[in-house]
Amino acid sequence: MTESWATFGADLHLDLSAGRGLRAGLTEALREAARSGRLPAGTRLPSSRSLAADLGIARNTVAEAYAELVAEGWLTARQGSGTRVAERARPRRPAAPARVRRPVRGGPSYSLMPGSPDLAGFPRAAWLSAARRALTGAPNEAFGYEGDARGRVELRRALADYLARARGVYADPERIVLCAGFVHGLKLLARVLRARRVREVAVEGYGLDYHRDVLVRAGLRTRPLGVDGDGARTGELTGPAGVTGAVLLTPAHQFPTGAALTPARRAAAVDWARTTGGLILEDDYDGEFRYDRQPVGALQGLDPDRVVYLGTASKSLAPGLRMGWMVVPPGLLDEVLAVKGLSDRTSSALEQLTLAEFITSGAYDRHVRGMRLRYRRRRDELVAAVGGRVAVSGIAAGLHAVLDLPAGTERSVLQSAAWQDLAVCGLARFRHPQAELAARDALVVGYGTPPDSAWAPTLSALAAALP
């Protein structure tokens, strides 16, 4: 039976000086630890019985050392509070030399950068409740070294049910592979494509440069597809498998233009994949958020054998969770798992179990519905703030809008925004260097980013920056 006294107080490493009595050596070691700050003020020391057992000495020796240091003022002893380092026992440090103060400027006061949700909206209380339930019910093996390279089966089952219901994805839990977000999943897939001797991946002419960088660093070329109001021009997909062996698409809400890929272009992409043996990498980054349209299902539902579906909790909850998932075609699963490997640990088992509980309890759906209302309100206020001065597009879904500007004014508007202390992106930032696209000046405005407290002044700064 474990004695309760053995669990109180901090573990201590004490150097008992040789050639001195045990009590004197222990007293000096404790005094020096308090004097130097190695034992901070307020630290609770082990009980005399516990420390004596740790050091292999008599309990009375420890008790006498404690009593001497209490008398000197280095320690305090109160009934029910144990023995602690006294508040007066603070280390003495040499005064720092005087330095000339220089003004330091931080980042912009306001931000409408796309790509992030409202982090203040993270459901802390509901997440904590789910974490408690997950921890209580966690099997012992969840705390061990071993585990399935695909991730916890509890989360894979929860995701399979949710994705089928909410996104129209054919998702067998055995074919779901958990990862640390979209970029991590893309890195794994890029390695698989390279091992298959694929040389080129088609990408959308507008997109995130660091997604393209992931592919390039894996030894793959990227070839841009045109983008217009119907999404990516998938009819431009040509070439045998092994050359253009895959295409990366954002079908539900093209990033950054906001267009939804039309049924005809979806069919063209699937036909290309079936004909050539190519793969479609579907980035469903904000599929939960739609406002003025019927839900647009995942492209993966058209052909689960040719589409790799990638989703994350980065927009629906928070990017800091580092939680993503891939639904992998049967013919690709072994290769993905071989690349990922048992040593590729990306998120803790407890976080995975918590998200599984969060989804199965209904808390995830409630949170998404609540945030959908919040973001729709922000979108409407954004449109009202620009007052018809510029055309706004891409707003039927997602967390960002595109504000079209007069030709040739994008750079000057970005400079004006900087004068307003506002961070915002121009559309040109997302253009593939080799893309042949019609000239378009625009801002890509992320209305998920600001906290509620900064929303009104952020809109005012935007309005002041527009022509």
Q: Record the strand order, biggest sheet.
A: 4-12-11-10-9-5-6
Instruction: Determine the number of helices (DSSP H or I, runs of at least 4 residues).
Output: 13
SS content category = alpha/beta
What gap, in angstroms, lies between the N and C termini? 76 Å
Element pattern in H and E: HHHEEEHHEHEHEEEEHEEEHHHEEHEEEH
In percent, how much strand structure appears in the residues?
Answer: 5-15%
- Computed Rg: 29 Å
Number of strands: 17
What is the overall silhouette?
globular
Unreliable residue runs = 1-5, 91-105
Mean pLDDT over the full residue set: 88
| Helical residue percent band | 25-40%
What can be said about the biggest beta sheet? 7 strands, mixed
Q: Can you characterise this structure?
A:
- By secondary structure, the protein is an alpha/beta fold.
- The protein is built from 13 helices and 17 strands.
- The strands form five sheets. Strands 4-12-11-10-9-5-6 form a seven-stranded mixed β-sheet, with helices on both faces. The chain has a four-stranded antiparallel β-sheet with strand order 13-14-17-16, covered by helices on one side. Strands 1-2 form a two-stranded antiparallel sheet.
- α4 (124-137) crosses α10 (349-360).
- The longest helix is centred in the last third of the chain and has 24 residues, at 363-386.
